[in-house]
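> example.struct
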């Protein structure tokens, strides 16, 4: 509090100074009465009042990267964030166009007390230390033009969240333990080049064949199996895996088909095991069981198995919606974090693997979002690690010409609830793990 003007003697002997002293005293009193209490926290709301939901995640990640902590306010205003006040992050919110509110210590404490009310489905989860993020993508080694529509690459870039890129060489060289969080997108771990040769250029195919040869594998399918097993070991060892589109399906197919040849002659020049379907080992998979492999259509567009609820349909425009489940913020904190959103009904979107046939999902897998006839968003645990599978290719994607797709401009979709699910997964590893109660 400012000290009073020291003018006692002067005021008594000089009328002008006396009037000036009185003016200063009144001005000081008004300033003290009008000045707001000092802000100690920044609240980043994530409801409909947020101007850019996706960039808000980037602010939260930046705080963690600067060794700060973030309180994730589960089920409060769409899953809001609370951080300690700093002029740096107040400025960052303004620069990035992220809505925020300043709170005093009393205001923040009152909010946390409100969220701790056992009669409300709310809670506060403390996030510590930014996860080191890596994306598995062929852009590391080949033209891979189709990769410019990878939803995770798009949203990480838009949200200004840093990441590394690896491909088969780095995984086979043992680099995955350097990271906390791994993303897979429209990859084919069965070694059939995506079963869509219009998607891959000859240079892309040659790049994969060269990697297989470099590491001593006779076929790309054998090399991809080794990569799939390394990814599984990464997760079992405590890593966080987030997969979308065809990577979800083909990763499990490759693991189930270990030791079998399920690749058609159009891809590797020799025949496949006639009894391959009967020999699949579903105990080795992450999420799926009792699935049937799809026949090869000779190098054109085709799906891989009936895991995909729209098998044989290819890319297209979805017209329906899927629903996120409502989880307890206290007892089912993991799925509660992964489903934080300002909307719980989300527009469906297609991909080479669009959604998951319900009968193919293992009983120990948690379904976090479902459509009318299929599951869309799955969670599971493996060893000391955790994984999430998300069906579809791009939550806001539009169909391009032929088999190509137009990269989404996220400046047009800053409030995308479908993209928010991706970013929930990016922040998830920063929370202390709690087991689900139900």
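> example.seq
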């Amino acid at each position: 509090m400012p000290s009073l003007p020291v003018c006692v003697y002067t005021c008594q002997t000089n009328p002008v100074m006396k009037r000036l002293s009185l003016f200063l005293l009144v001005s000081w009193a008004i300033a003290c009465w009008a000045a707001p209490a000092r802000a100690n926290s920044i609240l980043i709301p994530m409801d409909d009042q947020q101007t850019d939901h996706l960039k808000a995640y980037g602010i939260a990640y930046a705080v963690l990267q600067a060794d700060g902590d973030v309180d994730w306010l589960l089920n409060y205003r769409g899953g809001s964030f609370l951080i300690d006040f700093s002029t740096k992050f107040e400025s960052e919110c303004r620069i990035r166009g992220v809505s925020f509110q300043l709170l005093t210590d009393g205001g923040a404490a009152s909010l946390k007390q409100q969220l701790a009310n056992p009669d409300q489905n709310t809670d506060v989860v403390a996030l510590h230390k930014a996860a080191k993020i890596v994306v598995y993508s062929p852009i590391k080694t080949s033209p891979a033009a189709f990769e410019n529509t990878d939803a995770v690459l798009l949203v990480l870039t838009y949200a200004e969240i840093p990441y590394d890129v690896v491909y088969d060489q780095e995984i086979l060289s043992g680099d995955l333990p350097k990271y906390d969080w791994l993303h897979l997108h429209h990859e084919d771990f069965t070694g059939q080049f995506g079963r869509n040769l219009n998607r891959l250029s000859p240079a892309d195919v040659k790049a994969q064949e060269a990697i297989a040869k470099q590491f001593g594998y006779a076929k790309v399918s054998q090399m991809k199996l080794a990569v799939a097993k390394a990814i599984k070991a990464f997760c079992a060892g405590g890593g966080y895996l987030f997969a979308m589109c065809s990577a979800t399906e083909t990763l499990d197919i490759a693991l189930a088909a270990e030791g079998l040849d399920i690749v058609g002659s159009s891809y590797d020049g020799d025949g496949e095991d006639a009894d391959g379907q009967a020999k699949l080992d579903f105990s080795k998979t992450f999420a799926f069981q009792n699935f049937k492999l799809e026949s090869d259509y000779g190098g054109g567009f085709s799906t891989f198995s009936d895991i995909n609820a729209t098998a044989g349909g290819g890319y297209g425009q979805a017209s329906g919606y899927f629903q996120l489940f409502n989880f307890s913020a206290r007892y089912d904190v993991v799925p509660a974090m992964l489903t934080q959103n300002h909307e719980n009904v989300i527009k469906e979107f297609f991909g080479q693997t669009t959604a998951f046939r319900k009968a193919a999902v293992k009983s120990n897998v948690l379904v976090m979002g479902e459509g009318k006839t299929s599951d869309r968003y799955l969670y599971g645990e493996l060893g000391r690690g955790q994984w999430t599978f998300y069906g579809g290719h791009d939550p806001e994607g539009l169909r391009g010409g032929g088999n190509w797709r137009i990269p989404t401009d996220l400046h047009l979709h800053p409030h995308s609830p479908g993209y928010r699910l991706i970013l929930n997964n990016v922040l998830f590893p920063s929370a202390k793990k709690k087991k689900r109660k139900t």
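> remarks
The CA atoms of residues 138 and 227 lie 13 Å apart.
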